[in-house]
Design a protein that fits this description.
The chain has nine helices and six strands. The chain is an alpha+beta fold and 186 residues long. Helix 2 crosses helix 3.
């Protein structure tokens, strides 16, 4: 599931997945079949597997594990600072080159429920991040904007980029709830 959460748009053959995670085919096949039966994954018309956003528990756990394995100290400090915010519920998602430690800035998307709160929330984040704020390229959008972008899959936008390469820092359940609502026709 950790590998599957890295790119939520990718469709996998079991053979391809077993090679990618460097495990034998048989146990991967058995695990995938079990996850399909429990409705965490689906097999599409081309017999490729992909995440199903109906029950996102395993996706959320895989994201948490990926975050634990991410060894960038700055990212962990920023995550800690964001998790201490006492404000509206939000999701913070690391994306872009900063995920692979190739860029100089740290790209973070924050999704909040209400677009009218964006400027107020921006000020709170600036205060909370303190000296780290200068290293962060912060994008704050509303949930409604997420749905609008997700409904344009062939267009280059921040949500389509995030589906392909991201790491949740905060509000993992909220992030996957947005994807679940979108998949179910928000």
């Amino acid at each position: 599931m950790e590998e599957i959460t890295k790119d939520l748009t990718k469709k996998w053959s079991i053979n391809e997945l077993s090679k990618k995670i460097n495990k034998h085919y048989r146990p991967v096949h058995a695990a995938v079949q079990s996850l399909i039966k429990k409705e965490f994954l689906i097999k599409n018309q081309n017999r490729l597997i992909e995440p199903k956003f109906k029950d996102t528990l395993l996706l959320e756990l895989a994201e948490k594990q990926r975050l634990l394995n991410h060894n960038n100290k700055e990212i962990k400090i920023i995550k800690d600072k964001l998790s201490r915010m006492k404000t509206v519920f939000f999701s913070a998602v690391l994306f872009g080159s900063s995920l692979n430690k190739k860029g100089k800035d740290i790209d973070i998307l924050i999704i909040i429920p209400d677009s009218e709160e964006i400027s107020n929330f921006q000020k709170q984040v600036e205060t909370k991040l303190g000296s780290f704020y200068s290293k962060v390229d912060l994008n704050i959008i509303s949930e409604e904007s997420c749905y609008e972008m997700l409904n344009m899959p062939n267009q280059i936008n921040i949500m389509n980029e995030i589906l392909k390469n991201h790491l949740n820092l905060n509000g993992i359940q909220s992030f996957y709830n947005i994807l679940e609502r979108w998949k179910n026709g928000w």
